[in-house]
Every structure is written in C-alpha cells, then in structure tokens.
C-alpha cells in the first residue's frame, strides 16, 4: 500500500514564495480533492511534486513510500509510481498518441511491451473510454479538444497504473458527456490501489467522483479540511470567505 506524504512544503517561483507550508498525506485507495480560488497555488503544488524546474522547493519534504521524491528526476518520479496530469499538456508534432503511450509505458515498466500486446491493450482501454480507434494515430495533443485531452489523460492512467495520481483541473473544458466518461475512468482506477489527488477549482466533477477528503487551498496553504460535505458547502457558498481571510 502506497503513501504520498507532503510535509511542510514551501515553494517559490522566481523568488516569490507561493506555497507556504503544505501538509498532506494521500494513501492508496483514497481520493483527495484540493479546491480553492484561482491563484491560490493549487497548480504550483502539482508542478512542484512533478519536479518542474521553474518551481523551487524552499522547504519541506515530499515522500513516496518513504523515498524522497524531491531528489528524483522527473523520469524517476514516474518510475516510482507517480503520475501527473497537467492543466496544459504539450503538443508534440510528429509523435503519435500510440508511440507516446508506448514510450511512457516502457519508461514506467522498465521494458518495452511487445507491440502486438500493447496495441491490443491500448485498443481495449480506448474502447472503455469511448475513444475512436483513429485517435491512436493522431499527433500528440495536436488540435485535441478539451474532452480529447482529458480522455487521453485517463488513458495514460489506465495504462501506467500509477501508485499515486495527481490530476490538475481535470474537469476544465469538459462537456457533460466527456465529464461523465472521464469521471467513470477515475472511479474505475481509484477503486483499486491508486491514491488520487484531484485538484480543481470547480465542484462539478465532485458530483461524479466522490472524494474521501476535501482540502481547501487559499494563499498557498490548506486552510480547511473535511469530507465530501465540504465540497457541497463550497458549491453553495463559494470561496469568498477564504479569500477574505488570507487577503
Ligand atoms: P491555482 O492553480 O490555484 O490557480 P497557481 O499555482 O497557478 O494557482 O498560481 C499561484 C500563484 O503563483 C499565482 O500568483 C501565480 O501568478 C503564481 N505563479 C504560478 N506559476 C507561475 C509561473 N510559472 N511564473 C510566475 N508566476 C507563477
Ligand atoms: Mg490558475
Ligand atoms: Mg491551477
């Protein structure tokens, strides 16, 4: 059983302190939602855990099963079982979805899956997510709609089977049908051993994916924690009182 432990994490961007002491523990099989107003530092948390070079950790620790993630390269983090889906995935001209996914699987599993077996696995997962088979031959992220980007994220999750998945604003730009398919995907793998950290500004996706824990972010810190009922309260009350409290 895996555990991601974030302890008193401080992060700066270009010398500007953004995260100011974040403590959070995510265990296998748990779903945690991080919610909060725009600019509160939610994405900064995801980027820092991912190892993005622009985000400087100035204090604290991030451990995956006791191992120091902050000492690892981005690839090593992926091999250790961490998955990060970003708000703005990059376009890679000339690389097909299928090739990209096979390299990602190779990086994480440590050996290349046999092409025929991989193609079969890919087809079956795409089928589960209602993705047209022609999608596998498209160039990575090129001209992807919001829904296609998100389905692609879930597809990666299902193939990579990470221990801990950090999903940043997975519901942005999704129509209701796409939201449902993506939520079903999240619900499918979170019922297994994966711990999920779902970062979102909106409460909408939480109608489909019920978090076990909700953490409210404001001013670069967690300012309130609770169960699913907290998400419902945020839906009716909004973030105004947290913003006032940290202004
Ligand atoms: P959220 O995801 O909650 O909307 P962010 O983590 O994106 O918040 O941003 C938190 C703060 O950090 C904002 O004030 C933002 O301007 C700043 N910030 C985040 N990333 C960068 C960056 N790459 N360069 C400069 N400032 C950044
Ligand atoms: Mg933002
Ligand atoms: Mg963000």
Automatic annotation (TrEMBL):
Residues 4-244 form the ABC transporter domain. SUPFAM superfamilies: P-loop containing nucleoside triphosphate hydrolases (SSF52540). Pfam families: ABC_tran. CDD domains: ABC_FeS_Assembly. Keywords: ATP-binding, Nucleotide-binding. GO terms for molecular function: ATP binding; ATP hydrolysis activity. NCBIfam families: sufC. Belongs to the ABC transporter superfamily. Ycf16 family. This is Fe-S cluster assembly ATP-binding protein. It comes from Thermostaphylospora chromogena.
